[in-house]
């Protein structure tokens, strides 16, 4: 379902000035407007750099509204880059400023954004709390459009929590407030259809969904959600072929890898029910490929976010150094002017008193002192430059370490994906064997019986396990060596089980890879824990992580 995200900005003519000079409000508006243009074009680094400059300048001038705008839109940038932790930090700072220094409009905007962040993380309780706060503030302000939007958001969360009566109340409110906003009201209609479906009013939900679909002309997230919902309704009616058709239509209008993943997962399930196993395998391959795409996008976003933070720190350091350099230049100017006045006075005094020798000695002394001062300043500057170089090297080393860590995690995810693919394949093969062995007519054929035996032998084959171990050791260099060195009493299956557990696979997935029951896997966990001299099996994963 569509959740509404709010980006706060002002529009004015762009006229960016140097960071060395204080900017007035027109110039700050221009910086903000330009940062939002970069954000819309997905040039997040440029947008974040401008917003950081805006934040620094507004803090120096104690302009709380611009501080809020900078922080809120920094949060939106990081949210778009999938760096939810950094987005949360900026939203919370913006929320603090809005409650202490600004009015309710800014407060409810950042509350809604916080709610969306927790919604994406699956923390529905927190998401509901923040949506509710924003909704109440919108009611106090009498803002019909935002009341309607927040009502839809609350109805979506209520549907997910099966609070169906509450959802209807919020949807009734949304419909009454959004009469002049039909493009937003469509989300209310889709949420109402989902509510009917969850109440098991299938015919009403199906009729309303088809009518809405015929009226919905534009492609977009609303149409994707509606097609997905119709597919679920048809599946609940047992009409699997039509359900699959609507899923394929949803795939054509899907806008993001996340949407595609939803469709492929449902296609795997439907093709299994229709016993179209080749198509089920193809859909499963698409699920794996889409997950890899999503993981690659997340890794790229996290790396980009880390690089942005590094550049921002350098940018802040440059601002600080520029200001210090300006202060130092002004101090030196005053120093030289002062000494020039002193020297002129000394010369005038020397000429008046005809003490030429005394004047010369003083001039030499002053010049010598000046040389010493300059040498000391040069050494101090050299020390500062050296410290800055060391700091930059440390920062680059940390960035490289984070890159390597992300690369190892990415390879482990690929290994886990391969293991899950093997598990799903084994489960599908096992289902085929069971279905074939239950049919007596099939077992009469010697050729089919021989193929069944070959499939069973394939399930027990260790060739894929050997290939898996080679890739696992390449990614987690030293893990198996340390494990075998510390615990030589472990057999091959024990080591195999520990590798799967280290990759955080579930008991069900491990059981499928071993071609045994989940109960057997639980018993193996207890036996392995005893071999590792652990007090109980609950601490097994933490122990492996410590290795």
Automatic annotation (TrEMBL):
Keyword Transmembrane helix appears in the UniProt entry: yes
SMART domains, A to Z: TPR
Gene Ontology molecular function: DNA binding
PANTHER family, per database record: RAPSYN-RELATED (PTHR10098)
Organism of origin: Xanthomarina gelatinilytica
Keywords: Coiled coil, Membrane, TPR repeat, Transmembrane, Transmembrane helix
Coiled-coil regions listed in the entry: 369-446
Protein name: Uncharacterized protein
Per-repeat ranges for TPR: 68-101
Lineage of origin: Bacteria, Pseudomonadati, Bacteroidota, Flavobacteriia, Flavobacteriales
